[in-house]
Amino acid sequence: MKKLLISISLALLLVAAMAVPVMAEEASTTASVTVTEVISISLSGPGTPNMTFGTVAIAPGTEDVEASGQSAGTPAINVVVESGTNTNVDISITGTATGSIDIGEWEYCTTHDGTKVPLTGSYVEVYSDVGVASYAFYHWVDVPSDAPAGSQGCTIYYEAVAHS
Amino acid sequence: MKKICLFVLAALVLLALPLPVHADEPAKYNFASAQGDKELKIPPGQEGRGYIYFYNIDGNRITHITLEVSQAPAGWDASIEPPLAETQVLVSGIPTTVTENLYVEPSELLTTEPQDVPEGMVSIKVPGRGYALGKPAQVVIKVPESAPLGSTGEITIAAEAAWLGQSGAAAVKQARDFDFSVTVVSGSTEYTEEIIKPGEVPKETETAGVITEGEASEVPVEGITEGEASEASVETVPPKLPVPESQSSGFSLTGWLPTIIAGVVVILGAIFIILLVRRRR
């Protein structure tokens, strides 16, 4: 009698132990979460609000005309990934010419003394997988000798998207 | 009298000081966004909404934002609210017309959640910082009737942020893409589950009621329209879920079985202990 009772009790305890986690799983499926992505980027530096390059003589053409106010350690534009941004981002750059100087004559670099890179009509990733901090963009323009007199310009786009 | 005049003059000078300071401070162009749920579930022939919120707590200039649907599956209808419209702006006293979907003025970072949010704005929880007042943009997506259940469509919204008053040779702007992934689901909220045997072709009426794993989280909560839950805060929002009909109505023996077994075990254990005690006596 005693053995029978112990066996039944143990068997029932086993069954109960197996059944309880099943109940817990059923309960947890009734909740879910919605995660959102926050990105805050600021542009600052001597290139805002006016990125100027001064007056340049056309003949015989001038290379690497620096953005006004820019110097080593002071980039024309700081792309600042602000706090509150909850994902790492990729920062890219592109441009469109608004005058007769080709977009490829407008250049950028992440350092003052590095190799200058011509802007292109499509986005080029410059900083990859970066978090909250400031990222430098130095700017120059090459004025070709055949450029017509008058004001020239371009629009520079900085794109920050969540790193994937 | 002279003293009063001097005091008033000094007060006026002090009051006027902050304005030019604000105008003269170095420009800081901020483009801040918070995206709502990226994964949307919409039944065929119906409409769903994705949300993007914009705020401006780190800048000192008005951010003018244009939005464009740059990618959507063929036959799907995607539009943006508010639509492109002209806004009249006075830039240093000169009237200027800007074509944009919305603009966001610089605002203060709030340490506590605002109780009174102005109409047309939302309170956004900025991770680790506090709250910001921002503006929402809605991406309205209509899935065609012919879209097969379970198929997905990728929608991309291209955003461009611009700032007025730039008079240099090079103007600067910001750009950002927002992706939404839409899964075509059944419009029925009734829970059914049926095993499809190998080689068996399920009838359309049967598949229409099938809810795939995880879909329950997208069923609109009573009294809250889709996307509204994330409007109040862009923090993690655990939506309430409706209990499937089969679970909510009536007595289910399978649901109570573990409790019954546990009860029986406790009773048997008690009887067993009593018997043991009696025998020892």
- Percent helix of chain A: 10-25%
Task: State the CATH architecture of the largest domain in chain A.
Answer: Sandwich
Tally of distinct domains of chain A = 2
- The chain-level mean pLDDT of chain B equals 77
Q: Main interface pair?
A: A-B, 60 and 61 residues
Order of helices and strands of chain B: HHEEEEEEEEEEEEHHHH
Q: How much helicity do the residues of chain B have?
A: 10-25%
CATH class group of chain B:
Mainly Beta
CATH top-level class of the largest domain in chain A: Mainly Beta
SS elements, strand count of chain A: 9
Instruction: Please give the radius of gyration of chain B in angstroms.
Output: 29 Å
CATH topology of the largest domain in chain A: Immunoglobulin-like
Biggest sheet character of chain A = 6 strands, antiparallel
**At the third CATH level, what is the topology name of chain B?**
Immunoglobulin-like
Structural class of chain B: alpha+beta
- Strand percentage of chain A: 35-45%
Number of helices of chain B: 6
User: Can you tell me the overall shape of chain B?
Assistant: elongated
Low-confidence stretches of chain A: 19-35
> What number is the mean pLDDT of chain A?
85
How many domains in all of chain B? 1
Ordered list of secondary-structure elements with their pairings:
The complex is a heterodimer of chains A (164) and B (281).
Chain A: H1 2-28, E1 37-44, E2 62-66, E3 77-81, E4 89-97, E5 106-109, E6 117-118, E7 124-130, E8 133-143, E9 154-162
Chain B: H1 2-16, H2 18-24, E1 29-35, E2 39-42, E3 47-55, E4 63-71, E5 77-81, E6 85-91, E7 94-100, E8 102-104, E9 122-126, E10 130-142, E11 152-162, E12 170-184, H3 204-208, H4 228-232, H5 245-248, H6 253-280
